[in-house]
Amino acid sequence: MRTVVIAGGTRGIGGALAARLRERGDNVIAIGSADADLTSVRQTTRLIDRLPGRIDALVLAAGRFDQRRVETGEGLEQTFAIYVVSRYLLADRLRPALEAAATTPVVLNLSGTGGIKAGRIHWDDLQLTRDYTMFRATMQGARSNDLLGIDFAATRPGRVRYVLYNPLFVDSGMHRQFRQPLRTLIGTAAALLGTTVDAAAVPLADLLDNPPDAPLTALRRGKPVALSADPAAAARLRAVLTDLVDRV
What we know:
Elements: E1 3-7, H1 12-23, E2 27-31, H2 41-50, E3 57-60, H3 78-93, H4 95-99, E4 106-110, H5 134-155, E5 161-166, E6 170-171, H6 182-193, E7 195-196, H7 197-209, E8 216-220, E9 223-224, H8 231-247
Parallel strand pairs: 1-2, 1-3, 3-4, 4-5, 5-8, 6-7
Antiparallel strand pairs: 8-9
Helix pairs in contact: 1-7, 2-3, 3-5, 5-8
């Protein structure tokens, strides 16, 4: 029986994947807001300490977005905290548990890889204290997650496979995080044009069953995409995140 940890596994794509894996007989630890506030470094760290010493797969699916800038109690911009910091922490600190897996371990990061090319990492203002927009925050998160994958595969070689996966437009219920009228607009578009969460979970379950051979793989709805590998930028982000986590 595999042990699969899913951050953001109580609803949306993560919830659908958790249900599918449980039907297959896997031991699924689905993490939701009732288990820990993943925008908090302290709560995420305490959560990691409670997780098993052997994990076969880690799925990073938690996210939170807002039209207005929201600052956490630890002084971090909310989107950056959950979309970047928590994913860095979970993958980095659970690596020993993943390396202990009997099967080929995998980190599956649901992100915006290979999607909209606009956007960049704002090195001089990662918390977006100036000129915050939801688009800037989301695009910075997508670029940052690419670097997290590059750094994980390049600097800590081992058995773990790291997969960046962009499911594209999914009717995941994420529109409920937005204010009106955007909530209604996105919700209607998702219902009409988006993939269902159950359908989106199918290729994800298959990836966990058959991890790629390469240390790092980037996929856009199942199709390989090329990453603009920048080891220097990846190392820079890791240094920034390490310092940030140590200071919280």
